[in-house]
Amino acid sequence: MGGVTQTHALHQLVPLAAELDDNKVTPGLLGFVIFAVMAVGLYMLMKNMGKQMKKIDFEEKAEQKPAAAPKDDARPQRSAKSAGA
Questions:
Q1: Is pLDDT above 60 for 46?
Q2: Is residue 40 part of a domain?
Q3: What's the CA angle centered on 70, arms 67 and 73, to 5 degrees?
Q4: CA distance 5 to 12
Q5: Beta carbons within 8 Å of 27's beta carbon, 6+ residues apart
Q6: Which residues, 6+ apart, have CB-to-CB distance to 35 below 8 Å?
Q7: What is the pTM of this model?
Q8: For the chain, what is the domain count?
Q9: Domain-located, residue 47
């Protein structure tokens, strides 16, 4: 029965919405303030990220190719300790 009460409450708000003129509805001061706060926050995050990126000291090392193994002995030899005998 909770659905009936919710529907009844929505019907009471319909006349309030009908009073609003679509041509006069604007975001207003609150919308501007929220947008401005988000813009300032984004600027501060970007500035901080630039500062953090400048701290990184990264030099890429050239890749070292592994030494070629002899072709006649492709398998590694097992020692007496690792063989378990």
A1: yes
A2: yes
A3: 130
A4: 11
A5: 35
A6: 27
A7: 0.43
A8: 1
A9: yes
